[in-house]
């Protein structure tokens, strides 16, 4: 019996039919275009490479509006990103192995074949880019330093031997605008070719400082970047590729709100907000200290390709220089360090909970700022990043200068045995500053140390110079065992020599902070003659074996085993002494009552990962459907994990290690070309992870690995409809990220500093501190012709309200939380000459 069609069904069918390109039939001779990648340091078809790769070509970059790293990460299953504290501070999780603040990255970032040693460069503006490749799984054998989780390869557009130019720009909500331009062509016939591109953008951001009334002071961004590339065809056999870049970035910094996670406080104060679900926070940005992040980056590289006949010699030299500082409000007001300073007393006269509920919310729910007085001093619950000067300020620097050399021989790609052999050398100098001091309402000197008679004197200072020398040798052999079976063996040996010298002056603090009466670095108490230099070396052998079988003309199967290595390193001197005094028993300080039993030291071990993978790559239905999938497991020893500590001293950033953990899972992605103009695409990633051993936080054993959501996915459609001399291009993207934990502790109660003030029982509980699952929807509709393009776009169209990051601080008894971007929309244009 034929079912009766309702009018609604008929109407929907007619509507869909009216929007579909005609004729809608599989008889059309269309097929997916070949995707060429360089994952194994030679050009190959994506489907022939036995590595899980997501390749994003120039067309997708343009039509998806990819301008920064976060724009393409959502298109890659089992890869997530956090972009929170400052512009360059991105944390990328690839298959559950996440990059770490204040440590080396977990993935190699390679631009035009040159490895970047500066982790901040990953979050640079992406303009004039040809292709992006995301490789998953350990890639240390070929890509080296710290590629324990994978590699990201960016290829910029090369200079052309014919003149071309482009100008573009756009406007958007939040008073955002951007302008970019490019010019390319021959400088000397076909011998010397040049390309220059520049981009500038500015936005006020989504959020407003309700204390100052400024709507361009929280998550604002100003970015101007320029890139030049020159290719010199020295001869038929030799090419030199020169690349230089410069950028200036200004933006907001440390835009967090705090949430308590102490159930016992609920009983004391009668307010549920002391044990809060971080996803239901009422965010208020009320800081009186300007949140500033300024970066200046200069990079230069030259790469030589020389055909020697038996092999190509590929050698590159790269130089990078970054200078960056952050200035932000402080965290320690609740601990009354600056309670009796004139600035704090003066602020509390007017900026208290009775006069300014808009700043602090209902009294003691959870914060309460009381007027000054004998009965009210040391009685408030202020919270961090407030409108008062009672919380002090923080100042940070991340400066790095590095020089690297990479040279390799690459055999021809059409031989039965193919090989690569290379060496890598790098010299890296990094300066790290974390300072905490008094806000006296007299402005701020943006420098590591401010003397006691200065406007913002320093009371706690970590200031170190790190010098790292890297040596490595690597190679790969690929054998055609049969016409359909390939065996690849790769290996790398890395040796890193690390030295650190302390630059903290041997002086006392200002005396303004009653919690910090002594030296400005606690390590000076036990080293009165000065803090000695430290040094150590780390090395590891990283093998990889891959078997690749062409099961048919359109189906490849592969299996691989690989080892990754990330060098150990040093926390700032004084980390161990400070934490022992405040949180651990046996050291004569407040830690006697807390007894957190932390095992955080001034140095941390190297990280080693071992990965197993089985994968499928296929092109089906006459190459209309590209379907790739993989299952994998990664075991990690001494995973480097960022820990944040807040207390009466202010704040402290450090790196600890998770002794043993594993991540295993499945991922798949597809592209389906329905007709010449209509395609569907998507992917799914599933993870299962567990902390197996963690001596620093033994109660966390059995918990999920931080920043390893169990499900990620994306689904999209692109439709190109010819309309005479131009095309109507529409693209819809849906992205999903599952529930995410950001700490090893996920509900297990541990002691806090409040036990030193109120007695035992005031323990933290992070069961409500995971980030909820979220999904976003993006839409782009535009017109494209041979010379021009105009596109209307919207991101997060449903205005999904979700967190970007949660930073738990267990010994404080709460977390520091950062919002994500809200709905944005705008109009872009470009014109090509």
Q: Give the low-pLDDT segments.
A: 1-27
Radius of gyration: 28 Å
As for the CATH topology, it is Maltoporin, Chain A
Percent of residues in helices: under 10%
Structural class: mainly beta
Q: What is the CATH class designation?
A: Mainly Beta
Reported CATH architecture: Beta Barrel
Tally of alpha and pi helices: 11
Strand percentage:
over 45%
Major β-sheet, in short? 22 strands, antiparallel, barrel
Task: State the domain count.
Answer: 1
CATH homologous superfamily name?
A: TonB-dependent receptor, beta-barrel domain
Q: What overall form do the CA principal axes indicate?
A: globular
Mean pLDDT: 93
How many angstroms separate the termini?
A: 61 Å
Domain TonB-dependent receptor plug: 46-151
Protein name: TonB-dependent receptor
InterPro entries: Beta-barrel_TonB, Beta-barrel_TonB_sf, Plug_dom, TonB-dep_rcpt-like
Family: Belongs to the TonB-dependent receptor family.
Secondary structure blueprint with pairings:
Blueprint: H1 7-19, E1 36-37, E2 44-45, E3 52-56, H2 58-63, H3 69-73, E4 79-83, E5 90-94, E6 97-98, E7 107-111, E8 114-116, E9 129-136, H4 140-143, E10 150-156, E11 164-172, E12 176-188, E13 192-203, E14 221-233, E15 238-251, E16 257-260, H5 263-269, E17 292-307, E18 312-329, H6 342-350, H7 357-360, E19 393-410, E20 417-437, E21 458-480, E22 485-502, H8 523-526, E23 534-550, E24 555-566, E25 569-570, H9 575-583, H10 591-594, E26 603-604, E27 607-620, E28 625-647, E29 650-673, E30 678-693, E31 711-723, E32 726-737, E33 750-751, H11 754-758, E34 763-764, E35 774-784, E36 788-795, E37 803-809, E38 814-819, E39 824-832
Parallel strand pairs: 7-10
Antiparallel strand pairs: 1-2, 3-9, 4-5, 5-6, 7-8, 9-10, 11-12, 11-39, 12-13, 13-14, 14-15, 15-17, 16-38, 17-18, 18-19, 19-20, 20-21, 21-22, 22-23, 23-24, 24-27, 25-26, 27-28, 28-29, 29-30, 30-31, 31-32, 32-35, 33-34, 35-36, 36-39, 37-38
